[in-house]
Sigma54 specific transcriptional regulator, Fis family
Amino acid sequence: MELTAGISRIERVFPANQAWSDFRDVILLQPGWADSLGLAKSLAEKGWKAHISMDTREAIRCLRSNRIYVGVVLLDASFSEETQSELLEVINESLSTEWIAIVDPACMGSIEHASFLSSFFFDFHTTPVDIRRLAFSLGHAYGSAKLGEASRGEFHLAINQRFGLIGSSKAMSLVYDNMQKISRSDEPIIISGETGTGKEVIARAIHGLSPRAERPFVAVSCGAIPETLVQSEFFGHSKGAFTGAVEERIGHFEAAAGGTVFLDEIENLSPLGQVSLLRFLQEKELTPLGSKESRPVDVRIIASAGPNLREAVAAGTIREDLFYRLNVLQIDVPALRHRDTDAAQIAEYFVTRFNQGKRRNAKRLSKKAISAILDYSWPGNVRELMSCVNRAAILSSGRLITEADLGLSRSARFSGRTLREIKAQAVEQAVTSALAESKSITSAARRLGVSRVTLYRLMEKHSITAPGVEQVAG
């Protein structure tokens, strides 16, 4: 079965003579149109409003334009690894949706398929389907999704408040969810991303969320350690181990006993350092330089790397065996330019932090300054944004930080971005502003000079919701 084949549309099945509010939404993904339609009609009798999607693109559009807490995937005998990959795109699109699979019994003979179902689905049923049992599962999945969304929202807020990780974009929500799962484990982690994206902040947050939170967090800059000193820095040394070693000294790993060692820029670790680290990961023991006695040390290893770590492995800069030992768990931190409107939230956070302790002359960002921040590509990511905002706050003559105070040239603001990206953001900002300043969809459309149908299409395309705006003329 190929999910991208078939009819590219969403069909809604609405029961007659009943109010919309009486039904809960469910999305049905594939297979044969007649089977899906028949299932949708049966579910409608149980109080479910079905959105039938015949391919992944339609499913993703549906999830973006509707709040749907439960999805059903129908899998036939041609279920494959390619199908799994496509399904994961849909599953990752809405983290608050619980999924139930309806599976051809022929699929159940594969260990890989069974593992996939148990990992990513709330429940599964084999064909032929018992509608009563399926409706019961849907009810439980719906309740679980609602509770999970509330819990996830509380966790994201706690992350913001405790660790200063600001941003509510979908890309960062996925990072937060992964942090919550990963923090419970003791396995090594690689946090990858561009310079300035906040990899160490995320590492500290994972440590702070883990059972090791009360123990030390020790950060080590791998590029700052000469090869001749790497064993002493990592594992310590005994008295007289080398010239100048006048006393015994513990290394970074022992200093972090019971806690976490954060190895920043692991790709810059020397070849000898890589061998030493690999041996420690294998044996969980260290031997101080100049000593013959090994001793166990309990630490968790978190490493950070640039976005091209696999290329460094392919080029031989990083040992392949070390990479696989470290890459048990991974978090990819998105660049700021890929985080929707997070840059504005982060800038407001830095201004608020700048204002702390100031009883008068508190600063705030002008609307044009915020637009300039959203337009700029931020090649230096959050670190560059922080420097820019702090500099503007210090140098601005009034209480309002202006576009000019930021010092972002217009050409630089749009550098590194395609014309399509620039146009899409401009349209998104215009639609969002019109909706915020209007009482109804009709008045927002009039303000933009487009029809209501066009406005709805733009809202769906850019995943814009307007819960406080009336959907009728006004």
